[in-house]
Amino acid sequence: MNKTFTAFLAVGALGLAACGGVDRDGTRDQFISDMEELGNTADGDCIDKVLADYSDDDIEALSDGTENATTQALAEELIACTDLLGG
Fold first, then answer.
1. 0.90 surpassed by pTM
2. Distance CA 25, CA 27 (A)
């Protein structure tokens, strides 16, 4: 799976509301919920570890659909927490 497609999946799965700032627990829960709606599973502990490595601005940028090296890395790490790639 190429990186652009992987990032697209993660961004598409993160239907986050940017208003009121980033809520990491809400981000995790929304990502898990969205993955389940797509017929996949996601590991909450893995997601928490990924999100801990990024700033609120980085997470918000991903939810806003900003494309840069940081958001792409974040998206790929989140996807690695799912069963999409056999993880």
1. no
2. 5
